[in-house]
Design brief:
Blueprint (H helix, E strand, L loop, with lengths): L8 H10 L8 E3 L30 H4 L13 E2 L2 E2 L4 H12 L7 E5 L4 E8 L9 E7 L6 E9 L8 H16 L12 E3 L2 E8 L5 E12 L5 E13 L16
Parallel strand pairs: 1-11
Antiparallel strand pairs: 2-3, 4-5, 5-6, 6-7, 7-11, 8-9, 9-10, 10-11
């Protein structure tokens, strides 16, 4: 069974995204044709399925075009599941949102982070998007909801294709760009190890949404790195910088 981890993946991801644009790497998802990439601006229309996405990052000034001045997006969870809920409340939220029967929701523990998760396979989380596996992670100390994730891959849906993953990523990125996140928190099309951050944004309380397209890179002509997507990950995170997971106290070893 796939293990659900909160960090170090997300903390490392936030750090690498905050480091600045990596446009020079020229990473693009692999499609039928992959012309030389061009830097993407925040206000530009998202690429349609079948076209490459250029690596780059939004600047704070450019991102302001997609966010109202003082009405930034509030991230309190996903659908009926809200950060801070206990397991019973989250189970009820999953049943409400998806009509899930109790035996369709699976439990999983993380032995290293000492967190607990609920998993549910959701068909058509996105229209025609394939089956996604949802994960609801409860904190080590609080025992309350600290993260919600969704994953699309061959592991969740045998019929999913790289083109479908890319299409899902474009749809979600376009949606999040219109949602009004803090302008200085928004980043798009950022290459990281093993993939591209299609979108990252935070609200006034630094709760974050992260959309990551994972895959394998190939080096093409003109030092262009092309990504063949293998999975799409979406995270809603209450506190990615200081998550509620087990850590050894300083000085013990």
């Amino acid at each position: 069974m796939r293990k659900i981890y909160l960090v170090p993946a997300l903390v490392g991801l936030l750090t690498s995204v905050a480091a600045g644009p990596l446009a020079a790497q020229g990473a693009v998802p692999k499609q039928k044709a992959a012309p030389a990439p061009r830097a993407a601006a925040a206000g530009a229309a998202p690429a349609a399925a079948g076209t490459p996405v250029a690596a780059g990052a939004t600047s704070a000034a450019a991102a302001e075009t997609s966010a109202p001045d003082d009405k930034s997006k509030a991230i309190d969870g996903f659908r009926s599941a809200k950060f801070g809920m206990n397991e019973a409340d989250v189970r009820a939220a999953i049943a409400k949102d998806f009509g899930a029967k109790p035996d369709a929701v699976r439990a999983q523990d993380n032995a290293s982070e000492l967190t607990h998760s609920l998993l549910y396979s959701a068909p058509e989380l996105l229209p025609n998007g394939g089956i996604a596996e949802l994960s609801y992670v409860f904190g080590y100390k609080s025992k309350s909801l600290i993260q919600i994730g969704a994953v699309w891959s061959k592991g969740t849906d045998a019929a999913i294709t790289p083109e479908k993953l890319f299409s899902n990523a474009n749809i979600l990125r376009a949606h999040f760009l219109s949602e009004g996140f803090k302008p200085d928190s928004i980043a798009v099309n950022m290459p990281v190890n093993g993939g591209i951050v299609m979108f990252r944004g935070s609200d006034a309380k630094d709760r974050s949404v992260i959309l990551l397209l994972q895959g394998t890179f190939e080096n093409k002509d003109n030092n262009q790195r092309v990504l063949t997507p293998t999975s799409l990950l979406l995270f809603y995170v209450a506190d990615a910088k200081s998550p509620d997971i087990f850590k050894l106290p300083p000085g013990q070893f």
